[in-house]
Amino acid sequence: MILYVDRFAPNVRRVLMFIDEKGINVPVIELNIESGEHRSPRMLELNPLGQLPILELDDGGGLSESTAICRYLEELHPEPALFGENPTERALVEMWLRRVELGLFTPAVEYGHHTQPFFHDRFVQIAAWAALCRDRVAACCSLLERTLATSSYVAGDRFTVADVTAYCGIEIAILWGIGGYGDLGALTAWRGRIGARPSAAAARYLE
Ligand SMILES: N[C@@H](CCC(=O)N[C@@H](CS)C(=O)NCC(=O)O)C(=O)O
């Protein structure tokens, strides 16, 4: 098993943080997205979408999509259970994972694609789409604020993969300067708690 990464990529960071929380050792090969190393013929064979992260399996097959990779690793190494321990917990984790991926992580990433000079050559940058993404991030932060006022973690009282994705989403939103979450006390306190975990180093862009 080999994990192909570019450590700057937010989706890669979700998987690296998850692996660190699991306490498992997965061999990693570093590729450079900017120079196109992730789109070599072999990498495209493993993931025709030409995106990282990719987990190369021992039978030579490729697994992509960050959540699918995390689920696979959870199956191989069930403890600690980061996708939930019983049917209710698993459903709640799934619910929150979808909410924070669709409402926070993905719009925060897309905001960067549509605003940052670094991505100018890679994306047709649409200011109106960036504004919509920023608003979606703000709405998800408000939702998290209400939730975290009464629970320690995103999907309840235990750390799960929903915290990993939410934390990576917040860090990328802050990197791109999407402001406004600073007034949200419960979310800020949660960010401090998650940021104190050793695994968070894999996700943090700014100190
Ligand atoms: N849905 C995929 C998204 C993967 C993705 O967008 N990867 C980005 C880095 S964060 C990438 O490889 N971009 C390079 C490219 O599209 O050429 C996942 O969850 O892993």
Describe this structure in words.
This protein is of the alpha+beta class and 207 residues long. It folds into 2 domains: 2-76, 3-Layer(aba) Sandwich (Glutaredoxin), CATH 3.40.30.10; 87-202, Up-down Bundle (Glutathione S-transferase Yfyf (Class Pi), Chain A, domain 2). 52% of the residues lie in helices and 6% in strands. The chain has 7 helices and 4 strands, in the order βαβαββααααα. The protein has helices at residues 10-22, 41-46, 66-76, 87-115, 127-148, 161-175, 185-195, and strands at residues 2-5, 28-30, 54-56, 62-64. Strands 2-1-3-4 form a 4-stranded mixed sheet. Helix 1 packs parallel to helix 3 (66-76), helix 4 (87-115) packs antiparallel against helix 5 (127-148) and helix 5 packs across helix 7. The longest helix has 29 residues, at 87-115. The radius of gyration is 17 Å and the shape is globular. The protein starts with a strand and ends in a 12-residue tail after the last helix. Residues 9-11, 33, 38, 50-53, 64-66 line the site of glutathione.
Brief characterization of the structure:
With 207 residues, the chain is an alpha+beta fold. The chain has 7 helices and 4 strands.
Derived from helix and strand composition plus strand pairing, the structural class reads alpha+beta
Shape: globular
Tell me the count of domains. 2
Number of helices: 7
In whole angstroms, the N-to-C terminal distance is: 32 Å
